[in-house]
From TrEMBL:
This is Diaminopropionate ammonia-lyase. It comes from the Bacteria. PANTHER family: DIAMINOPROPIONATE AMMONIA-LYASE, PTHR42937. InterPro entries: DiNH2opropionate_NH3_lyase, TrpB-like_PALP, TrpB-like_PALP_sf. It comes from Microvirga subterranea.
Length: 402
């Protein structure tokens, strides 16, 4: 399904706070922070020429966040960045002077961090980023995971020394429980979703994501005409769409937000014209996107800068994983997790349907940007769905590049 943006705020300017948070100057500062990370390197941008020809579009480029900061997901840019910012701000408050990221490992800053605990709820990737950020600065982390989070993803977070807390129910239940326990314990919640009265920290998380858009624009031969980005609570889609709109202005691409059909909280919010919480149904294979209530900040942004909203089915997501792992022609193989290839799944769906293709203006001149938001963050699940291990896919890519 596809739904054009019909909100009254569509194409209106962003709120000043959102423009400041997600604009060029903010992204430049995020990149400066990244230079102080030991394992930082820009993630690759893959060109899929054979795939573009098969879909009847001019070019397809995939920004591959499976290589981001050793965590295998774009989320590495958000939670850890927010943790670092919050530690530096608290250090500045206590020391009575500005504290720059260059001082992150100074003894007086580490002493401040040692007294802080950062909490969040997660489907897997955001919690890993918060835990890594806390370990990096010498703070503690308490990560809340709901019943659907696999043991493999829990273990991947726990290796950073985080306290793991299981919560019955859905992701939204774990968000509520993290907020409740953190308030009682005096912990700082670093959430990638927002609610009334809690907007600044999710804004910092979204700000972290702008670095990958800035990288992609440098790597692309020309700005994209179309961008498909998947949504959970909407944070990454809002960050990407807002940054592109602010930086490219009238040259901004057509921006399509993509939801799992079984957890389409952004799609249903767009249909209603206001934030709505949807019912919890059958779980989706797109586990990192299984969210039932949108982030208020993300929706505020998307209501202005998203052009259309789509949903994809379970089989679409798995087919996308397989097609990226077994590419056509000389295209590189890409390891995309269950949620990583959802933007590609939507593009495939749209390009294969003449009415959808026409509605989005997709043609032989279209230049598509997609984001592989995660690699195989649960290798066992990836192997089960694709029929080949992520290591074997990576080996095939290395062989093709040799």
């Amino acid at each position: 399904m596809i739904l054009p943006n019909q909100h009254p705020d569509y194409r209106r300017p962003l709120y000043p706070v959102d423009a400041d948070t997600l604009g060029a100057a903010a992204a430049e500062e995020v990149e400066r922070y990244l230079t102080y990370r030991d394992n930082h390197a820009p993630t690759p941008l893959h060109m899929l020429q054979a795939l573009a020809a098969g879909l009847g579009v001019g070019a397809i480029h995939v920004k591959d966040e499976g290589f981001r900061l050793g965590l295998g997901s774009f989320k590495a840019l958000g939670g850890s960045y927010a943790v670092i910012r919050l530690v530096l701000e608290e250090a500045a408050r206590r020391l009575g002077r500005p504290v720059d990221v260059a001082e992150l490992h100074a003894p007086e800053v580490r002493a401040v961090a040692a007294g802080m605990t950062f909490a969040c709820a997660t489907d897997g990737n955001h919690g890993r980023s918060v835990a890594q950020g806390a370990q990096l600065v010498g703070a503690r982390a308490a990560i809340f995971v709901h019943a659907g989070v696999s043991d493999g993803r829990v273990a991947a977070i726990a290796r950073f020394g985080a306290k793991m807390i299981r919560v019955e129910g859905t992701y939204d239940d774990s968000v509520a429980e993290a907020a409740r326990v953190a308030a009682e314990a005096g912990w700082t919640v670093v959430s990638d979703t927002s609610w009334p009265g809690y907007e600044r920290i999710p804004g910092l998380v979204m700000q972290g994501y702008t670095a990958m858009v800035r990288e992609a624009l440098r790597q692309l031969p020309e700005p994209p005409t179309h961008v498909f980005v998947q949504a959970g609570v909407g944070g990454v889609a809002a960050a990407v769409a807002a940054h592109l709109a602010l930086v490219l202005g009238d040259r901004r691409p057509v921006f399509v937000v993509v939801d799992p059909a079984r957890a389409a909280c952004i799609y249903e919010t767009a249909r209603a014209g206001r934030p709505v919480k949807i019912g919890h149904g059958e779980p989706t294979v797109m586990a990192m996107l299984e969210c039932y209530e949108p982030s208020l900040v993300a929706w505020r942004v998307l209501s202005r800068v998203a052009d259309a909203f789509m949903t994809v089915d379970e089989e679409d997501a798995v087919a996308a994983m397989k097609r990226l792992a077994y590419p056509a022609g000389n295209d590189p193989a890409i390891v995309a997790g269950e949620s990583g290839g959802v933007g590609f799944a939507a593009l495939s769906k749209a390009a294969s349907d003449p009415s959808l293709k026409a509605a989005l203006g997709l043609d032989a001149a279209s230049r598509i940007l997609l984001i592989n938001t995660e690699g195989a963050t649960d290798p066992a699940r990836y192997t089960e769905l694709v029929g080949i291990s992520p290591a074997e896919v990576a080996a095939r890519r290395r062989g093709a590049d040799a």
